[in-house]
Amino acid sequence: MLLIGGVVAAVVAGRAEERSTATKTVRAVIGSEKAEFFADPDVVDALAAKGYTVKAETSGSWAMEGLDLKGYDLALPSSQAPAVELAGKYKVTGTLPRPFYSPLVVVAHKNAAGVLAANGLATLDEAHRGTLKMAGYLDAARKDRTWQQLKGSEKYGELTGTLYLSSTDPVTSNSGALYLAAASYVENGGKVVADDAAVKRTAPLLRKLVSVQGAQQAGSDAVFRDFVSGSGNPLVVVYESQVASLLREGQQPDDLVVLYPDTTVNSDHTVVPLTEDGKAVAELLSQDATLRDLEVRHGFRPHGGPPEFASGATYLKQELTGVHQAAVPTSEVLRELARRAKG
Amino acid sequence: MSRLRTRRLLAPTLAALALLTACTAQEKPDNRDDNAPRPGTVRVLASSELGDMTEVLDEIADDTGIEVRPTYMGTLDAVDLVAKGEADGRYDALWLSSNDYLRLRPEAARKVVSETPIMSSPVAIGVKSASLAELGWEPKDVTWKQVEQAVQDGKLTYGMTDPARSHSGFATLVSVASALSGAQSALTDADVTKATPRLKEFFTGQKLTSGSSGWLATAYKRRGNVDALLNYESVLTGIPGLTVVRPKDGVVTADYPLSSLASSDGTAREDVRRLTEALRTDDIQRLITERTRRRPVVASVPVASGLDTGRRRELPFPGSLSVAEGLLDAYENELRRPSRTVYVLDTSGSMKGDRLAQLKRALTALTGDFREREEVTLMPFGSDVKSVRTHVVEPAYPKSGLDGIRKDTAALSAQGDTAIYTSLRKAYEHLGSGQDTFTSIVLMTDGENTTGADAADFRRFYDGLDKAARETPVFPILFGDSSKAELQGIADLTGGRLFDAEEGSLDGAFEEIRGYQ
Fold first, then answer.
1. Any idea where the VWFA domain is (chain B) (predicted)?
2. Is B215 within a domain?
3. Structural domains of chain B, count
4. Which of A154, A231, A339 to mutate: most B Cβ within 10 Å?
5. DSSP per-residue codes, A111-176
6. How many whole angstroms separate alpha carbon B497 and alpha carbon B219?
7. Which of A43, B53, B160, B474 has a Cα-to-Cα distance from B353 of 20 to 30 A?
8. Are both B285 and B154 inside the same structural domain?
């Protein structure tokens, strides 16, 4: 297990710092994809209005276990499994609040999405939105299918070589690990992988999904940026929130199709409250109407009711109908899957 | 396949690194005292190519007050430094052309906490416009297979940077190997082995090698008989007369991630975060693409005009160190044309003592770096050339050649005057012309020319050489009491480059020159 050690950048508390005398400071360690959220001045204000200044530092979700969280009020990894581990380590009891989530999606360039659809591997319900058929894709991966073998690909010079989804490194990064969680669920006949036999059964395919990619990026931001800059693989596994966040900036990228895997997993942002103040902030993130709106603005889905993604309705599904959300294996199993996949 | 495993692959000495900085960067090399951390100043260990970001960084300093203090270094050397822990506490951030190679070295990857791509540039081929017309190529449709065919037909020669020292060279090598091996996904050892004959053929077309992109462009211009250069698109678009082609069947792209280091403290990491944020604003992304011809990573900024937006397949970078190093090893020892080098070594009286000891140490260290098939000639001189000893590193028994070099090195002794030009002339005569190798001359002297032919004599001699012989550059090393003007003159005349062993060390200079041999 490679821990990308230590806490990263302190996210500036912005405006609220000036009035910090009136608020309680809450120290949090969060997954990097939420750094923009906590740095947003509107979020800072909304928290300050309730009497809190959150000083957030970022860390890889799986790396939080390696940190000493003494003096922190809460941890907010991007997945339930590492949160459960942390709760065990710090003897936090009770249900862990899960204020919002974001499903794993595949961003595709238009040509690639079109070819997948023409070959029955995806369906498109809008020019920029569709569904990826996981069983079909995994079958293609198992058989080392290349783009050249798919009809309609000959028109596009960039579509050659093995068909695969790019993800982050599953050993260090949550989104890469969640991709394996989704794939292993499908490969295991629609059941979450929970024992050695299932690990053994699914490992060869997972190994294939990872080894074709060669060197993998360490973070979900990097793979998404590569995609946006027009380089990199035409199919990339990212969080829906990353796409929503891009669309929020007013972008309407023409060469972007969002494919929702018909079986996917959610990045379930889960709070591990370490103090009473941490608990109070967790409560606010789940319940406060202003904060919930801001969460949606940053592309997250608050639990309880579909979000109104104001922009990007043609790219994103408002409701996740037709998308099966698979359960994620325990962190122990998931790490074993990641380890075997890396080979 | 027998390969030389003793070579210090990708592991130059620290001294070499310090020297590299001195030679390739405009900045003064960092000295430890003024490298202390300062709030608002980010100490960045950066790929040499990022020297073109000065204007962008100045703009950021004006806007945000964050100053960047860069130390430039080759990407692979920088990774090595990080892996050894020698970047800890000395740098706040790492900014390489790509972290692909870093990720293959867990002990280096562990030092990085977060990374953010800033811009991108793919490997491309810059083809001289006349050659392009002759080949009848349509720039947007060119494939690596066509390039290979043109090389086979003797219609295309090219230059590229040394993959063991420069990431642009490494990325080029991966692109070529992936495309020509027919590998459908990330390269494996088997792919490399299978593709070896084709790659060997392909690299017969390489007529120019360089340790840096800058010298590659200079040498290309000077020679005038090389048809193309392989490098990053951003580098090639800056060279007049080249049409830049991104092969349709795939490229490797550099994405320039700014990475924060685990060893830095909270304040420094906050500065790095602010710097990252500033680099990704629309205004700065626009400035980047316009000034450096790299591609933006935000959707709201279009690529600079003139850069083609057509999609290209991204060739996966090898996922294991064994594949990456195996490929590099194959390139050095099997695929590329071998090199022939004459070391013209000053062993005049003034070298006596510590200087001679330094020379012996540096040369002995270098024997760990010579490639298979390489021909090395030692030509020590004083009042005249004292001896001419040639050794070849034979793939079947590399040790005997290397032992020969070590033995001759140990036997060097200091006496006599300094006949620089007479000795250089003999080096050219020894090399002759017409062999299919990379030829070069290294000149190490600790003083000025005191006897024999003078500069004017040498110029006349050089001008009288045939064109092929004139392509052999002299790489002089500034050392001891040698004259910078004199040595620069020799470098300029012969199309070489001056290396400085005064800022760094003799080992470092010899080591850096390897990239040009």
1. 340-517
2. yes
3. 3
4. A231
5. HHHHHHHHTTSEEEEETTEEEE-HHHHHHHHHTT-BGGGSTTGGG-TT--SB---B-B-TTT-HHH
6. 10
7. B474
8. no
What residue ranges do the domains of chain A occupy?
A: 10-100+268-302, 103-266+318-342
Total number of residues shown for chain B: 517
**Cβ contact (<8 Å) for B185 and A157?**
no
Chain centroid offset of residue B196 CA: 23
Q: Between B186, B257, B316, which is nearest A222 by CB?
A: B257
Class for domain A10-100+268-302, per CATH?
Answer: alpha beta
Name every chain A residue with its beta carbon within 8 A of the beta carbon of B270: 9-10, 12
Based on the fold, state whether residues B323 and B367 are members of the same structural domain. Answer: no
Which residue in the block uniquely carries the two structure tokens 């007013």?
A: A250
Residues B106 and B183 in one domain: no
Put residue B452 in one of left, alpha, beta given phi > 0 → left and psi -120 to 50 → alpha.
left
Residue of A nearest to B255 (CA): A226
Residue A313 confidence (pLDDT) above 80: no
Q: Is residue B288 part of a domain?
A: yes
Q: Cα(first)–Cα(last) distance of chain A, in Å? A: 13
Residue B303 domain-assigned (yes or no):
no
pLDDT at A90 > cutoff 50: yes
Q: Which helix (H) or strand (E) holds B21?
A: helix B14-24
Mean pLDDT of A11-26: 58
Q: Contact at 8 Å (CB) between B472 and B503?
A: no
The kind and range of the H/E element at B108 are helix B106-109
Closest CB to B114 among A109, A211, A219: A219
In this structure, is residue B416 part of a structural domain?
yes
* CA B286 from centre of chain: 29
Whether A74 contacts A278, CB under 8 Å: yes
Residue B91 lies in domain: 14-120+256-296
Whole-Å CA distances, A166 to A210, B85, B513: 8, 31, 39
B285 and B220 part of one domain? no
Model pTM? 0.85
Interface confidence, given as ipTM, is 0.80
Radius of gyration of chain B (CA): 23
**CATH number for the A103-266+318-342 domain, one of 3.30.420.150, 1.10.260.40, 3.40.190.10, 3.30.420.270?**
3.40.190.10
CATH number at residue B467: 3.40.50.410
A40 in reach of chain B (CB within 8 A): no
| Domain CATH for B37 | 3.40.190.10
Q: pLDDT tens digit string along A168-227?
A: 999 888 899 999 999 999 999 999 999 999 999 999 999 999 999 999 988 888 899 889
The SS3 of residue A217 is strand
